[in-house]
């Protein structure tokens, strides 16, 4: 029996994930959804944001559907998102960006770089180490190459003109690409951010280390219509977690106006990952039909509420049955 952990988290996670879970239930009513509470609200209620028992539950399921977790206001608990990535070995973050003239996939290394947690604060200085390992670079590049094999070409984004760690990243990534028979070009990350905006058609699969991927995907979100539109998959060798690229959006949380598209498209990625390609296509096309029919949330210039948009997508799915 397929079991999916469903983590709403905080803020708009609590608004968009229920929509995604409903769509999932419409497509696969036989799948069991296991709710797991994590994050700030949970911490306020219980004093813990995430514990080993939660991880056990997540590890017992076939995939995780995740909303967003709000960071601790004053560092009361360590980042839940980073802890999950570490505990579940989710070393790859796959972020497809589709929009006018853009159809690219950002492959972000998810475990190293400045997010590896090697940092210290002293009275008069602070230091965060940018850790890039051969093993980490090899496994993410192999995954990017596998993705590229079914697509067009690979671009490696980096800052090798300044950072030694990036010269290493670029060298190892190029070696792996050659070994995998994939033609790869490369670009400096700052120039790449601008060029992705100006000439998105030049890019297909873009491989980047952790923080550059974080930034580049928000930049590229411009083509899709904003953060409310971007889905992602966090993959490891054993576990997989699917979540919108956006966070808990405290500025609009509780208003019922968040765009659930990113969460719905993340659910389509989850279905695809579990071999449900037909259900995944149906969900993507239901979202596409509702958007092109003019129903949009305010971030896209419309007036639909989260629920109205979600109802329309679910109605579209039910039509197709
Ligand atoms: P954010 O992604 O939550 O919001 C950035 C901007 O985009 C806001 O103006 C927001 O209203 C808008 N936005 C985001 N998603 C939207 C949607 N679905 N529909 C309409 N508008 C949307 O990023 P921010 O504000 O920097 O972070 C807020 C909190 O979320 C922080 O505590 C941050 O640490 C956390 N966060 C958590 C993530 C996760 O759980 N994976 C990822 C990113 C941030
Ligand atoms: Mg981000």
Low-confidence stretches: none
CATH evolutionary superfamily of the largest domain: Isopropylmalate Dehydrogenase
Order of helix and strand elements from N to C terminus: EHEHHEHEEEEHEHEHEHEEHHH
Q: What's the CATH topology label of the largest domain?
A: Isopropylmalate Dehydrogenase
Number of strands: 12
CATH class of the largest domain: Alpha Beta
Overall number of structural domains: 2
Description:
By secondary structure, this protein is α/β, with parallel strands linked by helices. The chain has 2 domains: 1-94 and 225-321, Isopropylmalate Dehydrogenase (3-Layer(aba) Sandwich); 101-224, 3-Layer(aba) Sandwich (Isopropylmalate Dehydrogenase), CATH 3.40.718. Helices cover 43% and strands 20% of the residues. The protein is built from 11 helices and 12 strands. The chain has helices at 13-27, 40-46, 52-59, 80-87, 134-149, 164-180, 189-198, 210-224, 261-273, 277-292, 306-319; strands at residues 3-9, 32-35, 63-68, 92-99, 102-109, 119-121, 126-128, 154-158, 184-188, 205-208, 231-235, 240-244. The strands form 2 sheets. A 10-stranded mixed beta sheet has the order 2-1-3-12-11-4-5-10-8-9, with helices on both faces. Strands 6-7 form a two-stranded antiparallel ribbon. Helix 1 crosses helix 9 (261-273) and helix 9 runs antiparallel to helix 10 (277-292). The longest helix has 17 residues, at 164-180. The protein binds 1,4-dihydronicotinamide adenine dinucleotide (NAI) and magnesium ion. 1,4-dihydronicotinamide adenine dinucleotide is lined by residues 12, 16, 68-71, 81, 227-228, 243, 246-252, 258-259, 262, 299.
């Amino acid at each position: 029996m397929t079991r999916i952990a469903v983590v709403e988290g905080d803020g708009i996670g609590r608004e968009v994930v229920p929509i995604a879970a409903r769509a999932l239930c419409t497509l696969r009513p036989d799948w069991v959804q296991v709710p797991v509470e994590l994050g700030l609200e949970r911490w306020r209620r219980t004093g813990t944001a995430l514990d080993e028992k939660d991880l056990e539950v997540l590890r017992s399921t076939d995939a995780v559907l995740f909303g967003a977790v709000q960071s601790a206001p004053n560092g009361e608990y360590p980042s839940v998102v980073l802890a999950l990535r570490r505990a579940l070995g989710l070393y790859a973050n796959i972020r497809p960006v589709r929009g006018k003239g853009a159809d690219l996939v950002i492959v972000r290394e998810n475990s190293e770089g400045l997010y590896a947690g090697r940092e210290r604060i002293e009275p008069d200085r602070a230091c965060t180490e940018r850790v890039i390992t051969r093993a980490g670079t090899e496994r993410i590049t192999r995954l990017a190459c596998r993705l590229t094999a079914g697509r067009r070409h690979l671009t490696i984004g980096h800052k090798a003109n300044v950072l030694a760690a990036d010269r290493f990243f670029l060298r190892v990534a190029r070696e792996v690409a050659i070994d995998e028979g994939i033609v790869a070009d490369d670009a400096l990350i700052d120039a790449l951010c601008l060029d992705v905006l100006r000439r998105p058609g030049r890019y297909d699969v873009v491989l980047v280390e952790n923080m550059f991927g974080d930034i580049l995907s928000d930049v590229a979100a411009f083509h899709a219509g904003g953060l409310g539109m971007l889905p992602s998959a966090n993959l490891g060798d054993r576990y997989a977690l699917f979540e919108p690229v956006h966070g808990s959006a405290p500025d609009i949380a509780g208003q019922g106006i968040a765009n659930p598209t990113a969460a719905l498209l993340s659910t389509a990625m989850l279905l695809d990952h579990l071999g449900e390609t037909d259900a995944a296509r149906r969900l993507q096309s239901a979202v596409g039909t509702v958007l092109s029919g003019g129903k949009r949330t305010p971030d896209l210039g419309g007036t639909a509420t989260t629920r109205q948009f979600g109802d329309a997508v679910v109605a579209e799915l039910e039509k197709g049955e």
